[in-house]
Description:
It is built from one helix and 60 strands. It has about 900 residues and is mainly β. The chain has a 25-stranded antiparallel β-sheet that branches. Strands 16-15-20-21-33-34 form a six-stranded mixed β-sheet, with no helix packed on it.
Amino acid sequence: MVDRMNVGGNQSGQQSVYIGKGSRGGRGGNIGSDNTWNMDGVTITDMAATGSSPIYYDFDSFEEIQVTTGGSDPRIMTSGVQLNMVTKRGTNDFKGSGRYFYTPGSTQADATVPGEAAGYLDRTNRINFVRDYGGEIGGPILKDRLWFWGARGDQKISVQASNTVGTNQSVSVGLFDNIILRNKNLKLNGQILSSNSAVAYYTFSDKVRNARGLGPNRPFVSSWRQTGPTPVYKLEDTQIFGSSLYLTAMWSRVPGGFNLVANGGEGPSAPSYWFDALNNLHDNYLTQHIIRPQKQYRIDGSKFFDLAKMNHELKFGFGYRKTPATTSVSYPGPAHGFWDYSVTATPTVCANAKDPAHPNGLPANCASATVIRPRQSPRQDEYNDFYVGDTILLGNLTVQGGLRWDRQQGKLTPNAVDASPLLGTPLTLNCINTLTCNGTSGGKLDALLPALTFPGDSRSLKWNSVSPRIGATYTLGADKRTLVRASYNRYVSQMGLVVSGSNPLGYTAFRFYGVDSNGDNTIQRNELLSIRGFSGLNPTNPTSISKTTRIDYNMKIPTTDEFIVGFDRELLTDFSVGLNYTYRNNKNFTATRNEKTQGAGDYYTPADYVPVMCTNPAGCGSGPSFVQQGQQRLAGGTFTLKDPITGAVITTFNTAVRPVWALSPTVPTAVFSVITNRPGYTQKYSGFELTTTKRMSHNWMMRANASWNNFTEKCGSDSLQNPTPVLAANQILCGGGQVAPQSAASGDFGDDFLNAKWQFNINGVYIAPWEINIGANLSARQGYPAPFRDTVTGQRGGNLAVVLNPVGEIRFANVYELDLRLAKDFRFFNRVGMTLSGDLFNVPNKRTILQRATGIMQNEASLASGYRVRELQSPRVWRLGARFTY
């Protein structure tokens, strides 16, 4: 499952988030973080954005793409989707190709705005143009001994996100999101001796993007300009010993990194950014400079031998990988912070924000102000693995068995940060009454973010694991046209970002209530009235370098246990069907748990939380959430979406409701936390996959697959400290229903929650007379969940994004996509070929709503920005292309 639909290239040049069947993540189960990326056998997975790719690709440079989602191969570490892109190589014949594909926006159907959204959307997502062109050539340098292959590919992508109307209620985006991808590849293959072969490979990938993050709530000035090339180097040598043993040694280096610079500028002279009451971002945004180099060494081998009547292929290998990473984050403007009026969009928020200096609440025009210290997050991870596996052939039976050992270790390296320009000296204020400061609810506190130096971790977090693999296949009958299989496999998660969460110089901030009295959208000290929260520091000792978040060095490694059974049947010589059933059990999830006393392990539990009571004499809530004074508050209620221009009601409906809990007044608000395992929490996946394949014969071919998926969770009594189900860190835990992680990928996809209980795809090609190829592809899936949320503010323990309905109970519309292709092949001089093609994407011009704003309420009142349309299926569009080969 993927977080976006790429219609004719409208989502090309971006990092998609995707998950395989029952795939878990790394820290806390974050989405996609157990996926891996490989090029020619080199693992290049970005371990600082764990599970993502560090580069963008020229897909014409690939000979094949290998996709693995499970099985008994001991070379596989994780339960995620394993991708290996195998590039082309030179041979004794000079061969090459060139291509040019063009998707003009003029061939796209109108990106019409739905009638309901005319008051807040100026236009919907559309293509300006997409160009993809390049070429490759390969051949002999020294025939039978040395060969070369090289390729160059460029993509230029210009698209536009859904734009908000330029009125006082919203912002106007207006500009195109332009992406340029450049790829260069060079490979040398040599065979100086008949028993030895060598490979030298280089790839260069660069991306320049002018408006990353552009979307309905984020205008051009607040989007990022992305830059930063990443090369990949590889040396490999294979030696054959006799007729039954070979060894391959490999070295690789990936000096990765990139920059995300806000278009509003960086540094103290740049304007500060701020959020309006509709959560629209204005004027600027934060800037990131990212360095992610990698080095890898591997030795792999195979030994073939016979024992009794059994044929054996013994595979083994050892690898070492080092992946340091540093991310530097700065905030524009003189204050290094931002105003947020969406937090106080509900009028009661300011009135209820009370402290000893403001016993009757704050002014009605108050807002939230966050002041953040510039930060760096340097760390170093190392990965060692050893595997051994045997494939045994005995008649109709094939048995695979293996063991894999992994050691993963990570630690924080030395680091230093500057003081906050605004809070380099103490600012003494009262905390709001729901926050414990200096041992007292509503007590005074010195807000201080000084310069600090961290010497680095004295020890590493180490995960050692052994993963068994066992599988068997058996062919039935004399004709051997039926194959049955079964396997059990254990996988472990990648450590990735786990240690980063304990960085004492990571995200460190104070959150205030205040009033922007001069209206300049820049925080001044005299505009801050009350402290509403803090993150990443001990507020009673802000000059201390000791961590507020520690690591449990005895935590268990996250694991996945997998069982697969299935069969394949060849019904005809060119037609086969298959059915597989997969069961997965994910456990030992990591999480950040709050503790009351640092180092004591006295964790907060549901027993520390009490019902939030209605204190309004007129009652609280609306519709199904209405309760009388003295009763427990219920999140949710009656939601109403209005046209921001006319005030007309667009839609209104009742939501499900949830009881709200908050930290007991007798329990101090949390300061300290531990990265450890989440107790009593597991995920289970159960799914069927049906496949059919009609190989090319009689001028046609077809492939079809369908799947049914059930991905659920089990929560213990102490899996969550607050029993209120909420959205936090891209996850909804213990909310009932399906597991549906929130997208956190490149672009504006925060309302995509990946889960479809069914999906299917069918594609085929027919070769008509005169070598005209007619192709079709139909894909469909169930609509993704729409987990509506009511943000309850002003509670002890922090604001709560309460999930109102079990995940998957309410979904967006089902999605269907039909694409057609028409191509004609030409041959010249029996040597040169040319293919002219036309591809029509989204043939029926479906305009399915893919995203709505799912945060719809605040304190049981409707948010004006809630339930608004954010993305639609891109309109029908043509792509025209030409390819030549020689």
